[in-house]
């Protein structure tokens, strides 16, 4: 069998694998065009323009690389490319699909639903996020593993009605499993010990129970455990958009917050990351009066500019002034920010990114921050604890 060589440098182009070049040259010659795209692990370029050169990975733009499709759904391919992953094929839903899934679970257990009413899912997600963070801090677990655990919890509860489970056991198990998948494993005895000390009234946990719950989670998720997170896209693009440390930190925090919404089940990770960057550019704290309003206008104009450049219409902020016009009236700080937004808009216009999805993510995140002010931790905790105790799930 002929060995597959690692990627080698091609003169005049960034790093690309020889299999990609050979296949693409043949395809390009048949179609009368010049091969301009790269493999999944290399930077994307477009022929005849520098607008997107150096802007991202295949997680940002849909792959057009032949080598990532053979074999089509191998473990390596799924781990390397979001576009071939089980996450994209099985765990991204529309809003209607997600509501139908949850509605079906409620219909199957109408008695439990009526007997034990629960807050809206957004409030449940906030509570689960807090509990994952509490346990994660005790175990000194990094953020990406905690994010993976929250994704497992969301997936699991699209398959199983929450009132049939002990959420505290599910949280502990999801975090234990996430640490394995993120290659930062924790000893099962330590996880059990910390979970029991954190929730002593709701867990009579031992190693065997956590192990059983682990298999339950894996089974309900059909062993589809590989996740692609927005953090990678943010890390990749931060230098291309000249993000300051404050903007990077705020983008990271926004990504953390999005796990308390349904967005991880609705949109691809790169959409989330790009939305977080946009919000960080617009909403970051700034002492200059009026900077927030000017920044929001610039963001709307940036998205409208990107939409118009693609011929999609200017459905968002079409009546706003251009970012350059706003920058002339603001401080140097605002000028730099608007300049970043212009670069950001140029990137969107030349990419295949779903701008309408970004608009929806932006609206959802802003709505979440508004709804977070209505969150009542005690009421949410009491409602969860009530059905756990009443159904004996703390001792089962």
TrEMBL record:
Residues 313-334 are annotated as: Disordered. GO terms for molecular function: cyclin-dependent protein serine/threonine kinase regulator activity. Belongs to the cyclin family. Cyclin C subfamily. It holds the Pfam family Cyclin_N. This is RNA polymerase II holoenzyme cyclin-like subunit. The lineage of its organism: Eukaryota, Fungi, Dikarya, Ascomycota, Pezizomycotina. GO terms for biological process: regulation of transcription by RNA polymerase II. It comes from Neoarthrinium moseri. Keywords: Cyclin. Transmembrane segments: none annotated. Coiled coil: none annotated. The keyword Amino-acid biosynthesis does not apply. Residues 130-219 form the Cyclin-like domain. The keyword Methyltransferase does not apply.
